Batch of 2 targets.
Target 1
Amino acid sequence: MTTIKRKALSLQEKIEILKVFDTKSQTTNQTQLAAELNLPVSTLRTIIKKRGEIKEKYKLGSAQRKKHKVGKFDKLEKVLVEWIHQTRALKLPINGPIICEKARIIANGLKITDFNASSGWIDRFKNRNGIVYRQNKNGESPEAQQTVDTWMSTLPEMVQNYEPRDIFNADEFGLFFKLMPDKFHDFEGDTCHDGRASRERLTVLACANCDGSEKLRLLVIGKAKKPPSLNNVRSLPVTYDAQSRAWMTDVRFNYWLKALDDQVQTKNRQIILFIDNCPAHPKSIELKNIKLVHIPPNATSQLQPMNLGIIKVLKQGYRTRLIHRYLQESEEPASERPFTVHDAILNLAASWEAVKPETIQKCFATAGLSNNVVDEVEEEPEILHAFPGYSSIDDNVAPYEIQSIEHLIENFKTKNEDLSDDDQDEDVSTPVLSSAQALSAINYLRRYVSSLDHSEDALQKLNCVENFVIARPTKSISQTKISDYFNTCMYLPKVKYST
């Protein structure tokens, strides 16, 4: 019997072997297949056994690597990788000398005395973690393109067992929620770590599925547990939570993720959820009905549907509503009043509802998650042309805390969660309107809507709202909900405040 010589195989070669195995496993046993591939049977069995681990490493873009050893300074490198992910999120430059300097600081913080940030170490570190920072003339690194190509080649297998309605993507964004168009130049380039901008920021988590049939309720994170403007509010069209600096944190994201897992479990569904490598996102978490997949960290701008236009359209809708408010107050100074967290929440919900399924489908297709061909949709609202840069003013605002090296080291040791406070900033309470005032407002709206073409549906919805208001004095809150008056899927869930 001829002995087959063992040889080191790259990740690319192992992936190709797995593809052959998947194709022939029903007709060919492992011994025969190993002979066809000129491999020892034990090598083939090991590759099959470690399928999941191989694919995870392959997705990181280091497809030609043959050995995957943990570095001598594993703890140091874990902290350093977290710092690099943060820096990339802010689109700040990274190079070898910067990485070496940060590595020395981390080594000192972890009391590692025998570390030397040599050129050999940094080459091995980059190779182990798929770190690239060389750029071509277009600002994209060739290695990043390799990551995209590698990822695209594995996507079909990842989603082959899921219907489009069960393929989801979630992502966060920062929002200067009360920034009016006459003031936005004051905030250009602000990444919002502190100062005035941080006091006017919300973090928003958006999640939708591939065919656009499900836009999950937005998660909005503010600074106050219960802002004054929500004091008299019993229902919100979003989920509201609070953190002392309005950041997304790992605790809050995990809570949201577990709640989603419970929700899909009750419907007996299995979904796949794609997320980026935000520090607040878990590297591992036990879920029953959700397969969690991390998008490669150096290519999210090309691979994440939310980044490919969904969030952009949502923010354009939000800014358009603020412009209309600004114009109204310019024409009618008497109508001017402070813009509150409650106003922002209502604007966000309306803007999210207005994002078309076709827009979502197109962005998922661009990310390689769908084969649907969708025409160009959702052009920028014309009114935004008068304020260039306004809708994208907060594109670089990080939705999570940008931590110093010292904080990253401390978090690595303790993993402590900051507590929320009751910072209310300039938010003001919303006065409770009487039924008479509400009915009067509805009548004003009805008169205006009646003057417009094709307004039948809007008038019908106003009638539903009027019926709801009229019924309130005679029925208890628990007996009557506004959704009872709509034949459509309008949904106003009760708000749950964080404690």
Target 2
Amino acid sequence: MRARGSWRTEAQTANRLLRSHFFEVMEALRLGLQGPDNGSAATGPGGAQRADGGAKAALLAFVRERGPEAGISRRMLTDLLGRPERRFETEKLKRFFAAKRVLITGAAGSIGSALAERLAEIGCAQLSLLDHFDHSLLDLFERIRRAAPAQPVSDILCDIRDPGRLQAVMRTAKPDVVLHAAALKHVHLGERHPIECVLTNLVGMGNTLAAAASAGAAHFILVSSDKAAAPVCIMGGTKRLAELHVAGFAAESAMSMRLKSVRFGNVLGSQGSVLPRFAAQIEAGGPLEVTHPEMERYFMTPAEAVGFILSVAAFEDERAGSAYMMEMGGPVSILAIGKEMIRRSGKRVEIATTGLRPGERVKESLFDDCEIVERCGMDGVFRMSAKSASMLVSSADVAQLEAMARGFDNAVVRQRLFAYVNERLGRGERAVG
């Protein structure tokens, strides 16, 4: 039997969507991504064919490239949230970043590229784009050069898991601000490859933090996830330890670098997100796959995600090492989204309940009882900090976890990682992992 609260969330989501123009976007997505000839891949500005055409193309990219001709506005996307889209002060960001050199890791990813494009728009002294995926990095670099020819920009092909190389490029780039967006973020992939998740999300982050400090950076921002709260998956566990390492580094370092983490939910249109995945399944004739009928998630728009990260970077807070979370309103029913997308498509598509996958949970937590949650000086933003200094993760702790990841197989690493997370958070028998 389904809980009464889950029915209420589904009904609220469905009613909100029926009142909105949101699914005009999905209809345009269904028609527009077919292209002019027999389902060919969609084309972007200038007629260049999108490498990732079809309905699997990111919804955000579609709205950006084809939205005007389809009559699509950003408001149609935000109707899904059930709340007004959060706006951040552009002038304040311009003043903060104008004279600063900014380096973004994971620059070619969904969040990294959105950060890069926004910074190129508002302007900064130097924009350094760091990623190890050459094709996407080159594409982003060329895109920014065309869109903002006056913006100094450089591309850095580098793996954050190579500390020596990372130290060298940081010394050359001399960033004032480091925005660390590089991560393995897909829950299901992390469950199958915990070693890689530890080496990237924790060790790679630690390498980046140390290199930023060595290069004299004044600000370091870790992009985290709501899955770091009461973590039940490898990705969430590594992200929580990364947050605690940011706090631990702040505690153990005598440097004046401002260290912060940002934690948020699902970003509309990001790589692997539910909307383009559902669109692809409907276009293929189904079934539309939902892992659990009561599944709920918190959402934010790409503009909110970027504005939030940049605003936290500019926020003056004497509590070094804290994590920040933006208010995102209520959760959204995934099943209701799927049902309305099917209705609007005009197709007969079955809904298949596939069951929860490893590391997945029905409802997300934004905070947990192992941290202090309080308001801060930013409107609509919470600040989180560890309840005890014993929870913090030191550089020596990260080195031990790296040795563990390199010395054992995936099964052992998964078991030991969660034992470490549970011990560090003092969760004991209450933990899941």
